[in-house]
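hey m, so remember when u said the tokens were messed up on ur end? i reran from scratch. heres the input so u can diff it against urs
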Amino acid sequence: MTTTAAWNRDSLLQMFKPKVVETEIESGMTLKFRQLTVAETDALREQLKADQKAAGPDKAVPAFGLRLLIASLINDDGAPIFAQSDLSDLELAANAPIEKMVGKVLEVNGFTKAVEKNSEATATVASASV
């Protein structure tokens, strides 16, 4: 017999708090990703829109997945590993390891449909707009 927990406002808010998720990316290499808040995710989307508008319709801007990666990947002290100023460097990185990390950060932040949709196309996860 399964018991049902009595959910109330406080228990739900506690459950909704962002968490840190550790994952092994390569053999022996574990990285930490923090879940972003709704407000942080919305701000990243707005910044992407603003950057696209400023760049014009014919110029690509760094994708949402890379922006999520920068905001979510943290070190052992909880500090971000990358800054927004690292976008251009990440765009020049090899796609395979970036795709793996962006796929994980999308999953950690609740974008599992984006991961499934892009899992067959190697170059699309890091450049997909969510």
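this time it looks ok to me. The CA atoms of residues 1 and 114 lie 36 Å apart. if urs says something different then somethings off w ur setup not the seq
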